[in-house]
Amino acid sequence: MIAKRCVLDSNVLIYHLNGVLNDGMEKLLADVLLNGPYISVITRIEILGWRRHTAASLQYATELLSYVNEQGLTTEIIQKCIQLRQNLSIKIPDALIGATAIHLALPLMTVTSFEIRGTLSHDQAWVPDGAHGRS
Q1: CB atoms within 10 A of CB 107
Q2: DSSP state of 9
Q3: CA-based, 20 to 30 A from 129: which of 1, 91, 114, 135?
Q4: Burial class (CB within 10 angstroms; exposed 0-12, middle 13-18, buried 19+) of 99
Q5: If DSSP codes are grouped into helix, strand and coil, which group holds residue 2?
Q6: pLDDT per residue over 44-81, tens digit each?
Q7: Measured distance CA(68)–CA(32) in Å, rounded
Q8: The 3-state secondary structure of 30-64, one letter per residue
Q9: Structural domains for the chain
């Protein structure tokens, strides 16, 4: 699959930082990072707010986030997040990330299937084959 512009789910970056993406996914992520992907502001909070960071891991995570565009909260994203929460049993971070992808009209690259995928079109939810696990 050719890397495309997308919104990165927090779990893609967390799996990368923890070294559990397989080699194919690592290459795909490297390609995606060259295409100006987006993240939700909640992704930055989740990535940098982890309390067990070492100085080195925090620096690496910060550098990784320098390769992405961050989408802040807008009234439209908040309204879409509320709609998603009213209709699905998902956590606020997942709803914010999904709402961000919908707002930007970009696919959401994720490594897990969660309920929000039911509200996204085929082009909006992107779970690459073999998304996690070392090969």
Answers
A1: 19
A2: P
A3: 91
A4: buried
A5: coil
A6: 999 999 999 999 999 999 999 999 999 999 999 999 99
A7: 10
A8: HHHHCCCCEEEHHHHHHHHCCCCCCHHHHHHHHHH
A9: 21-126 (3.40.50.1010)
